Amino acid sequence: MTELVQKEILLNGTQAVAYAAMYADVDVTAAYPIRPYTEVMDTISKLIADGQLDAEFIVAEGEHGQFEIVKHASLTGARTLVGTSGVGWLYGMEAIVVTATDRAPVVAVIGNRALDDPGAYGVEHNDALMVRDVGWLLVWVDTAQEAFDTALIAYRVGEDSRVLMPVGVSMDGGFLTHSEQIVRLPPRELVKDFLPAYNRGKYLVHPDNPISVAPQVNEDWVSEIRRQHDEGMERARTVISEAYESFKKVFGRYPGTTRDIKMFENPFVEPYMTDDAEVILVGMGTVSKPIKVAINKMREQGIKVGMLRIRWFRPFPTQEVMKYLSGAKVVCVVDRDYSLGSPFRGGVVYHEVRSSLYDLDERPKILSFIGGLGGREITVQDAEKVIKIGLEARDTPITRHTYWINVRGDPW
Amino acid sequence: MAHGEDVKYVEITYRGIFQKRLAKYIAEGLVYMAREMGRSAVSFGRYGDSPERNGVPAKYYVALGSLNEEELIGYSTRVEPETVDVIVVLDDTLLKGVESWAWQGVQPINLKLKEGGAMIVTSTRNLEELVKVTPAKEFRWDMGRINVEKSFSGLWAFKDDMTMERVWGAIAKMRPDIVDLEHVRTYVKEHKKDRVNERLSAVEEAYETLVVKSMAPKEGAEFKYSPPRLLTWQEMMEGAAVPAVPRGGRNEQFKRGTTKTERPTVDFDTCIKCKLCWVYCPDECFDETKDGYYDIAYDYCVGCGICADVCPVKNCIVMVNEGRFKDYRRPYEMWKEDKVAYKSWLKQVREGGVKERVVVPGLGR
Ligand code: SF4
Ligand code: SF4
């Protein structure tokens, strides 16, 4: 089926990725239900049933099987889509980790969800962050449009012969997985120009190319395998930049937007009014929405505040974080996750940002804000309060490193 | 001043699973004894896959020295020490070479032995016979033999047949600087209270009857070994991928033949060419010959005995103790060369070399 005109359609975040997978013409999907990712597979099964997509739809017996299916399919040259949420992601972890080690460029939707117990379905980023150290590329999106565009980019980047790595497209459970927004779909014909066929080259598992992947190797090999992987992760930076450039050229707009806006031009991060900002908030995913509104309000009062939204968490945008945050007096990192027992009792992103800034001659003060765990809202008022605390810290010595936003029992 | 050179090492080479506990207990005893003698000592298994695999050569170590224990541990936190003072070989078929870690190739059993070092083998074969298959060294060293059957005192069941006590007695004889007889006795008395007299006589007997031969430089079998050059990360395929061995070929880098304590012998005169051995061999050791027989690549045979089990012709494939063979020559070649000589050779190696095999480990046979 070919569409030659751009069209607009109401989709939620998960549906948007399913549509992207259709446009990318995936060959194999493996499904196992868990909220809030489930609608990806609902949508894709419908697209297959309606004849819009010709792909294998395999229902697995659980997440471990689900990820093994796509890993193997991917090694044989199939373009794959998979996904899960929360503890499902963790249940598949053995297969998920080796998917990266075996360099299978699977694309997975991670509908972020709290890690049970107590059986919460709401967003928390700790699920996806479990793979931050094992060779998955990780990207967070904050709109359905960005989910669609980023999924296409994910195939392009992961399948690049310089990379060959799985990509986790993370989105906030509920706030994005279940919110419908208007998505502009590009002409389907053009997708082919942006997304070349998946070609594993000499890494294709095929009778005509006799290789084996991950036979039992001796422990002595592991250092070299990690070291190689590390180079691939580093090359991914270049490939990501190229992919965003190419996206702009082919579709005539910047990924994640309906227009080409100069301000959004960094693939790795989205700086929002950071140029002269004294206080900069940092976050991933939909938390950017209330934060931006709060910033707009504060700016009206002449307060110099901005935001840096992190898109790509792996590879981590170290240079960008240094560049955009070096002028700030205070950096407030709002984590929708927590790292129990970590230095200064902070969030995961907080630590990565803090570490990135360590080499600066003049380091901004850095505060950690933990909020919205398990799907709790972070409101515009909360964001305003974060800014206020940041402003106070600008003028007074730091007495506290971490603030829990709206947790019952703590002052807020 | 304390230096790494002050550390002495005992290496215990054993067969994975079958002898793991035996090796560990021998090492454990040596640690206690050395400490009683006023030295610090620790033991460590050479970690890897092998200790938990049936019959695969594996190693255990004891480090001892005058350093304090922290320093000793500092020097000994290794996969393997570079050189060793004493090697204990718990199965004489290991003398033919061991391939035990990280595909470093089939190594001579005494690769790491220091000049003047001691190697102790448990074997019922006489020393002259053992010397013929033992790799030569450039320098002088000593080889001792404890006259016992190899002991399968393994991972799942420990058959306490006093091999430990014999090994300790032998070390005391050859290397009293490691442990002396008095301290072996004291240790056994204090730590092994059941059947203590029997144990003490095992120590004494090994001490008294140990046959020792001083090995001259270059004495023994020729053994060519150079460690394979392992690939760098730039050379390896990415993503834990490896090129497959071409059809009909074999991986030169991965010969597992050192795993076997027995090898299959074939009587080609009675073979009915049914192909079952070829089908069943889990290591694909059989090669079909032009005239329909099945030749064996012994380098790759792990001695599992499945071919002997499935061969429908009585006494066509028979498992024979590995110690009876000097080389890895292919049997078909030998048979083709001279059928009469082959038949008499077959008769000779099978005589006395065929034993009831250990099929289920852990039965304490
Ligand atoms: S004993 Fe027989 S079946 Fe087993 S590996 Fe050797 S040749 Fe193959
Ligand atoms: S199983 Fe025995 S009889 Fe059959 S081909 Fe092999 S050696 Fe010959």
Automatic annotation (TrEMBL), chain A:
<keyword id="KW-0560">Oxidoreductase</keyword>
<keyword id="KW-0670">Pyruvate</keyword>
<comment type="function">
    <text>Catalyzes the coenzyme A-dependent oxidative decarboxylation of different 2-oxoacids such as 2-oxoglutarate, pyruvate and 2-oxobutyrate to form their CoA derivatives.</text>
</comment>
<protein>
    <recommendedName>
        <fullName>2-oxoacid oxidoreductase (ferredoxin)</fullName>
        <ecNumber>1.2.7.11</ecNumber>
    </recommendedName>
</protein>
<dbReference type="GO" id="GO:0006979">
    <property type="term" value="P:response to oxidative stress"/>
</dbReference>
<dbReference type="InterPro" id="IPR050722">
    <property type="entry name" value="Pyruvate:ferred/Flavod_OxRd"/>
</dbReference>
<dbReference type="InterPro" id="IPR002880">
    <property type="entry name" value="Pyrv_Fd/Flavodoxin_OxRdtase_N"/>
</dbReference>
<comment type="subunit">
    <text>Heterotetramer of one alpha, one beta, one delta and one gamma chain.</text>
</comment>
<dbReference type="InterPro" id="IPR033412">
    <property type="entry name" value="PFOR_II"/>
</dbReference>
<comment type="subunit">
    <text>Heterodimer composed of an alpha and a beta subunit.</text>
</comment>
<dbReference type="GO" id="GO:0018491">
    <property type="term" value="F:2-oxobutyrate synthase activity"/>
</dbReference>
<feature type="domain" description="Pyruvate:ferredoxin oxidoreductase core">
    <location>
        <begin position="277"/>
        <end position="382"/>
    </location>
</feature>
<feature type="domain" description="Pyruvate flavodoxin/ferredoxin oxidoreductase pyrimidine binding">
    <location>
        <begin position="20"/>
        <end position="243"/>
    </location>
</feature>
<dbReference type="Pfam" id="PF17147">
    <property type="entry name" value="PFOR_II"/>
</dbReference>
<dbReference type="InterPro" id="IPR009014">
    <property type="entry name" value="Transketo_C/PFOR_II"/>
</dbReference>
<dbReference type="GO" id="GO:0047553">
    <property type="term" value="F:2-oxoglutarate synthase activity"/>
</dbReference>
<dbReference type="Pfam" id="PF01855">
    <property type="entry name" value="POR_N"/>
</dbReference>
<dbReference type="GO" id="GO:0019164">
    <property type="term" value="F:pyruvate synthase activity"/>
</dbReference>
<dbReference type="InterPro" id="IPR029061">
    <property type="entry name" value="THDP-binding"/>
</dbReference>
TrEMBL record, chain B:
<keyword id="KW-0813">Transport</keyword>
<dbReference type="GO" id="GO:0016625">
    <property type="term" value="F:oxidoreductase activity, acting on the aldehyde or oxo group of donors, iron-sulfur protein as acceptor"/>
</dbReference>
<keyword id="KW-0479">Metal-binding</keyword>
<keyword id="KW-0677">Repeat</keyword>
<dbReference type="Pfam" id="PF14697">
    <property type="entry name" value="Fer4_21"/>
</dbReference>
<keyword id="KW-0004">4Fe-4S</keyword>
<keyword id="KW-0408">Iron</keyword>
<dbReference type="InterPro" id="IPR002869">
    <property type="entry name" value="Pyrv_flavodox_OxRed_cen"/>
</dbReference>
<feature type="domain" description="4Fe-4S ferredoxin-type">
    <location>
        <begin position="262"/>
        <end position="291"/>
    </location>
</feature>
<dbReference type="InterPro" id="IPR017900">
    <property type="entry name" value="4Fe4S_Fe_S_CS"/>
</dbReference>
<keyword id="KW-0249">Electron transport</keyword>
<feature type="domain" description="4Fe-4S ferredoxin-type">
    <location>
        <begin position="292"/>
        <end position="322"/>
    </location>
</feature>
<dbReference type="GO" id="GO:0046872">
    <property type="term" value="F:metal ion binding"/>
</dbReference>
<keyword id="KW-0411">Iron-sulfur</keyword>
<protein>
    <submittedName>
        <fullName>(4Fe-4S)-binding protein</fullName>
    </submittedName>
</protein>
<dbReference type="InterPro" id="IPR011898">
    <property type="entry name" value="PorD_KorD"/>
</dbReference>
<keyword id="KW-0560">Oxidoreductase</keyword>
<dbReference type="GO" id="GO:0051539">
    <property type="term" value="F:4 iron, 4 sulfur cluster binding"/>
</dbReference>
<dbReference type="InterPro" id="IPR017896">
    <property type="entry name" value="4Fe4S_Fe-S-bd"/>
</dbReference>
